[in-house]
């Protein structure tokens, strides 16, 4: 029977977990009942490590042992560990297809009765990502990263164009910018993954979250959806007819080249993740402090079926609890989730670092931060969203992620048609 999930844009259909031997499971120190968790290195993870350190200091009889693993290695290691029944007590995921798979295979436990007051604090659009069939199998643990539209106000002023609110506004702005030899949009097509943001927003604005949800459910031929085709056709049109900067296929995001084009006034707009706000402030301070650096939501598609409040990006990383852990280990994890997640010290640390917890009760704290304007904008964007779609490259199964990127790259270069893209993805 077809399962109905509340995962906000996840991976392809459920595939069997591989029963392989794993390197995880069991605490490294303390008693046998110690719980354990794997976290990632770098980024905002030191704040999570500090949170665990505070927990362990305050809970001598409920220790959680931590191991930090590099991002690329983690994805393979955790799937192996979960599949073999040797997963850490707390299982981190990006939700999506992995979470659905774990729930279907009964490798994680239902957390619906173990989250305390957390659900009332977390934005609904984020909380949805941890649900399967109405039950909570994962809870967010760190910051939220929506994709937003950045713009250079001085470029708009020079050509007399208003910031677009609808797709008709976008089309009119493109025409005016082209007449004035200005690139409407910067895009790091050479990196490919930034183009996924365009594919997601256009698909969602045209057909709503259901368009990609069919892919999540593993429906046969799910990629052959009119909204996905619309998005692909629109992207190719933007590339061929002056919507994207002419050199978009050679621009990369690794060295923030797409952000530099915006800061230098060579492009009027840039669709990118919320992390780019900090990048621009750090790497291009003159532009950031000029008063011309702005941000807004993705335009509404007038005749689209999607909710214009829907957003895409990274809702957060999430914790699940292993069904293979002992009752004692599970109870430690339940207590950590219900009593400790997003405590005052951790929230303060995240905000000071410019990260946004997905919480509805921190408006006063946000107002006191140095980046309050952007954090408040992002918080309202997430809080008002009907649906928050996980980035497709994180959402799909590992064996699908690379073909998705490869085929999208060919779309950007004009090497294949949208129909050929759909055929290739459906054949996987």
TrEMBL record:
UniProt keyword annotation of Transport present: no
Q: Does the keyword Transmembrane helix apply?
A: no
Q: Which UniProt keywords apply?
A: Signal
SUPFAM superfamilies recorded for this chain? Periplasmic binding protein-like II (SSF53850)
- Annotated signal sequence is 1-21
Question: Which superkingdom is the protein from?
Answer: Bacteria
Coiled-coil stretches noted in the UniProt entry, renumbered to this chain: none
Q: Which PROSITE patterns match?
A: PROKAR_LIPOPROTEIN
The protein's name in its UniProt record: Carbohydrate ABC transporter substrate-binding protein (CUT1 family)
Q: Which organism is it from?
A: Nesterenkonia sandarakina
